[in-house]
Amino acid sequence: MTTEQLALIDQLAKQAKGQQYKSSKADQQIAINSAADITPEIQLQLTQFVASLLNPLRQQLGNTPYTISQGALDFAQQIANNYQTWAKHDVATITEEAGLFGLDDGGNYYEDLGSGYIDRSTKNDWENTLDGIKKGI
């Protein structure tokens, strides 16, 4: 990274300290208790939410904004469908699915579990809401 990019990152971090997630009453009503509760519509909504957070920062740093593709959504869904252990990274599933999708299967380059931010101790007892997941992100 350049000196200018590092300075910009420092400036953005200082600006972000005062920002907080604002809950949505509608999202608080949508229960997410397992991976099965994440419908294609919710998956797209969460993906768009993440892109809306990251893309302004990427643009300020001079990086290309993220785009959302059906292939990326399908890849993520296949990983979720086949995840074996929800308490830690399931690298075996991630790398296997990456290979099936024609991606680099040499490691886990695709997923960050969010430990400590999103409660999901097992595959079927998350006891969360769409709002809680967005807040964790």
Number of helices: 6
What overall form do the CA principal axes indicate?
Answer: globular
Number of strands: 2
Mean pLDDT score: 85
| Topology pattern, helix = H, strand = E | HHEHHHEH
Give unreliable regions as ranges.
none
Fraction in beta strands: under 5%
Question: Your description of this structure?
Answer:
The protein is mainly α. It has 6 helices and 2 strands. A two-stranded antiparallel ribbon has the order 1-2. Helix 4 packs across helix 5 (91-100). The model has no long low-confidence stretch (mean pLDDT 85).
Short description:
With 137 residues, the chain is mostly helical. Helix content is 50%, strand content 3%. The chain is built from six helices and two strands.
List keywords for this structure.
137 residues; mainly alpha; two-stranded antiparallel ribbon; 2 strands; globular
Task: Write the SSE topology.
Elements (H helix, E strand, L loop, with lengths): L2 H14 L8 H4 L2 E2 L7 H21 L9 H13 L8 H10 L27 E2 H7 L1
Antiparallel strand pairs: 1-2
